[in-house]
Amino acid sequence: MNWDELEEKCFQAAFDAIKKLLTEYSTENFYAFSLYTDSSAMTVSLSANSEERLHFILDAEKDKSRETQSYYKWATSEWAYEGFSAENFSDISKALRESPDRANFLQFKNRLVQALINALKKIKLSELAPALNDSVLFVSITDDDAERTENISAGLINDKSISSYFLSRYD
For the chain, which residues make up each domain, given as ranges? Predict the structure, then answer.
């Protein structure tokens, strides 16, 4: 697999999806964006959430515990814009599923996570940067214990204050 090419495709797909979100929902305050894959490294998708959508979910939730609030705030699968612009990522996911490089799965998955981190780092430096100043960007893995990947990626992608805030999300 040409990882540089995959990284560029991930960047472009995520850039276009985030730009679309920021344009179509310009009145919302987005606090987080995540590129994620599954534990089998067969897909890539974007998930995002805003303060407004989070409050809507929390207001409807009966359990007002701090744990529940943290869960809804940071579980990408619970976000309002989970899988946003999935069509942007379909060719990427197909290439991942069909890659002969899957034979060395651990290396394959690590290379994918690194490509997603690099794509989000580029987005943080792109023309979208001013709109993302207060948002955390990170990589996640669904159906997996992703906290380590999330923490490492957040530290590599975001400035110190944003990554410190993110790292204390469950404290």
Answer: 3-167
